[in-house]
Amino acid sequence: MNMNNRNEIIFVTSNSYKYKIAQKQINGSAFKLVQKRMNISEIQDESVKKIAEFSACWASSVLNKPVAVSDGGCYIEAFNGFPGPFIKYINKWLSAKDLIAMMQNKKKRCLVWKSCLAYCEPNGKPVSFTSTFKGRVSREVGENIHRKEYGWIDSLFIPDGFIRPLSELSNKDYLNFWKDNNWERLLLFLEKNKNFK
Predict the structure, then answer these.
(1) How far apart are CA 103 and CA 100, in angstroms?
(2) Which of 58, 119, 123, 143 is the most buried (most CB within 10 A)?
(3) Closest Cα partner for 186 from 73, 43, 25?
(4) Half-sphere exposure of residue 170, counting CA atoms within 13 Å on the CB side?
(5) pLDDT tens track, the chain, 197 positions
(6) CATH code of the domain made up of 3-193
């Protein structure tokens, strides 16, 4: 790693909210986070961990820099875990309204969101950290009150402890909700395993 940029991590994402959340968590550490928008090569798998790790290794080899990539999956109990990590593909055919309609006669409305952060250095092996958010599928599509950039998951996911979907949270509450300890665990790993200064 270049000595001048040894504390720099490239976060490959086109999602501005993911980047803001990551920045908030990494502030005050010895590391600098740089956002990079690029098309990432992905594998097809039910595991967000395997997908994120593969993408981090691929991007790291292309950019020849330390790279972090996050991936998420929406697992709906009534659909046996569908759509899992295949959300962006489902977006082409189904809307939040369609999915809620499909849930009309379902008694089980549990939904689990899994988020994985993977990190890889050029020619290195990936490390990853996973978090889980639990909740339920709303009975109606939530309004998109505050954000232009959001997915259908926000308008149908009511997390445990909330009464309305994520799409109706203020920007502050929205960013605070998606904070997990994945970045914190990554920083601790890097500080423990690297001689950063």
Answers:
(1) 5
(2) 119
(3) 25
(4) 2
(5) 443 456 889 999 988 888 988 988 888 888 889 999 998 877 888 899 999 999 999 999 999 999 999 999 999 999 999 999 888 788 788 888 899 999 998 999 999 999 999 999 999 999 999 999 999 999 998 887 666 666 678 889 999 999 999 989 888 888 788 878 899 999 999 988 865 43
(6) 3.90.950.10
Q: Which two tokens stand for residue 16?
A: 């501005």
Name which of 188, 185, 187, 168 is nearest 177 in CA terms: 168
Closest CA to 156 of 109, 91, 103, 96: 96
**What tokens appear for 142 in the block?**
């939530």
Long-range contact pairs involving 3-7 (C-beta distance under 8 Å, separation at least 24): 5/65, 6/196, 7/31, 7/32, 7/196
Residue type, 67: V
